[in-house]
Design brief:
With 347 residues, this protein is an alpha/beta fold. It is built from eight helices and 14 strands. Helices cover 24% and strands 18% of the residues. The strands form two sheets. The chain has a seven-stranded mixed β-sheet, with no helix packed on it.
């Protein structure tokens, strides 16, 4: 009876939140464009069909066995990053979650920036952060481009994007199809939307390409897969940098390797992977992240998407522990785990 009551409460809460989301126009605008091999005119879809079963979210909420997370991790911020990196160097700083600062060929690129306290449409509910961002917002160098991989709240954070626009002016934002309309409706105009495999020049040295990912999009109940998701490859004289965004396992890793070899560094998610029966279609686990490193042929990989927000049933340290075991089992490839706020030059 307790489980039934819990499931009913979760369902009622989700319905109430969903109604509030629709009422205040938080659902993403629907993309309208030509049919393609991953867009049927109404919804986008993955290269491989790995849809979750109907009712799986409720089943997960009913049967959850979440791992341990401390209420708060008190850690000092990292040092202010360098203002500019050039001369063949590539430097990556892990800020938090999927927010990475990529510095290469004279440009500073920020991925999926989030400095907010919660990943939610509202400020009073939803997953909250368990530690402060590893780099203070005021310590960021000038940002030349922002990459937003998809519209989930932990990746497309409107308050942070507004702060970046106030701080940096009309910094270019690159995002998959449809997400720019959501930003524009919320006062963040001018984002460049890309389809899979399409690219754009950031300047005369650096190009940005949107690449496929195995995932989905939704801000509310009515807008699932109405906008596109993906990862990015940043290409310049110093090499190719791959940012995966959110992704499950799929053939896209090998396809990206075919087009962009050699990949100097890959930024790969390792967290929010439990329970596997629910998360597997959309989130790689640490063992799959190591397999992705190999499929990509990356010289170096760096872990992300862990240690900030409790989004799956894995505990706070579990992704790192499982990754270390997977690295050892795979013969110790160069797959780094950085502390939040730590930056390193890539060999």
């Amino acid at each position: 009876m307790k489980r039934i009551a819990k499931a009913a409460a979760v369902l009622a809460g989700a319905a109430a939140l969903g109604a509030a989301v629709e009422r205040f126009r938080i659902a993403a605008p629907r993309y309208d464009g030509p049919v393609s091999d991953h867009f049927d005119g109404e919804r986008f879809h993955n290269l491989e069909d790995r849809a979750r079963e109907e009712g799986s979210f409720l089943k997960w909420q009913w049967t959850r066995k979440p791992g341990f997370w401390p209420d708060w991790i008190d850690a000092p911020p990292g040092p202010a990053p360098e203002r500019i990196v050039d001369g063949g160097r590539v430097r990556v700083t892990f800020i938090n979650h999927a927010t990475m600062l990529i510095q290469t060929d004279g440009v500073n690129i920020l991925t999926d920036p989030i400095w907010s306290d919660r990943t939610s449409p509202v400020s009073f509910a939803g997953p909250r952060r368990h530690r402060a961002p590893g780099i203070r917002f005021r310590d960021l160098p000038p940002i030349d481009a922002v990459l937003v991989s998809h519209n989930h709240y932990d990746h497309l954070d409107l308050p942070t994007l507004r702060l970046l626009r106030v701080r940096n002016g009309a910094t270019p934002i690159f995002t998959p199809l449809g997400n720019g309309a959501l930003m524009a409706r919320n006062g963040i105009a001018g984002a460049t939307e890309l389809d899979w495999w399409h690219n754009v020049a950031l300047n005369d040295r650096v190009r940005i390409t949107l690449v496929p990912a195995q995932h989905f999009c939704a801000r509310a109940l009515s807008d699932r897969d109405r906008n596109l998701w993906g990862g990015f490859v940043i290409s310049g004289p110093s090499g190719n940098v791959y940012f995966a965004g959110d992704t499950g396992w799929g053939s896209h890793f090998a396809k990206i390797a075919e087009r962009f070899a050699p990949i100097r560094v890959a930024l790969l998610p390792i967290g929010a992977y439990l329970p596997r029966w629910f998360m597997k279609p959309v989130h790689v686990d640490p063992t799959e992240a190591v397999a992705a490193h190999k499929a990509l042929g990356a010289s170096t990989s760096i872990a992300m998407h862990f240690g900030t927000f409790h989004l799956g049933d894995d505990g706070e340290r579990q992704p790192v522990e499982d990754l270390q075991r997977a690295i050892t089992a795979a013969g110790n490839p160069r797959f780094w785990v950085l502390d939040q706020g730590e930056g390193r030059d890539i060999p």
